[in-house]
Amino acid sequence: MYQIDVLIQGFPGKAVCHGGLGWSTVTLLRGHGRTILLDVGAFGVRRELGKQLKAHGVAPEAVTDVVLTHAHYDHAVNFTLFPQATVWIGADELHWAASQPPGFNPLPELYVKELASASRVTRIHGDEEFLPGLRAIDAPGHTPGHMVFHLTANEIPVLFTGDAAKNRAELLSGHVDASGDHAVSEQSLQTIWRHWKQVPGTVLIPGHDLSMRLDENGRPEYIGERRAAIAAWFSESLEQTTLIDLCCAPH
Predict the structure, then answer these.
(1) pTM for the model
(2) Domain CATH number, residue 64
(3) What is the pLDDT of residues 99-108, one digit of tens each?
């Protein structure tokens, strides 16, 4: 059994005028002698990630494994904070990411270069159980080598979908936002649904939303309460802030 804690709650939205928010999910798994982070977030999450790790009694040096769904900056760059960890990433994903020229895209070129050359990085393949009870599933589309991870070591299975299924809207509509190949992404959504329906109660942890399970009618229902807000200095004093609540009423 693994103890599972969502350290950073993903957010299902994007900025209108300032590019991507990059608010992705970061999950801690502990069990079988391992301390695992599944995706590690963007630069902006570093302070909160450190705070959450400390609150859970985990030192950065104690993290044994970093598992990456894909190579985009908001999921991958913070692997450098965990120097003792083996980093796991899809072989096809890393090959693709390392072959891309610098450009206006979400790939962090220098971090990908380090991933491609570091000896502690291990490339994984679809349908491979690379850690106890944790299996990789090919789920391309968002990126060519994107992977979903299926945890079967617990009584209640868990699917970590990364950006193959970023949010509830994508799961329900069968369509995705921000994909390199929308037709392939929709096939990956079907793969996710097949695994989700296999065992009643299976929890799905997406890349940019609250965790979910299927209700008695087979529709995704949220687990937990969304927390997201921005404090802004619109006045003439640092002591006075405007709180902008980014949450909405649950469905």
Answers:
(1) 0.96
(2) 3.60.15.10
(3) 999 999 999 9
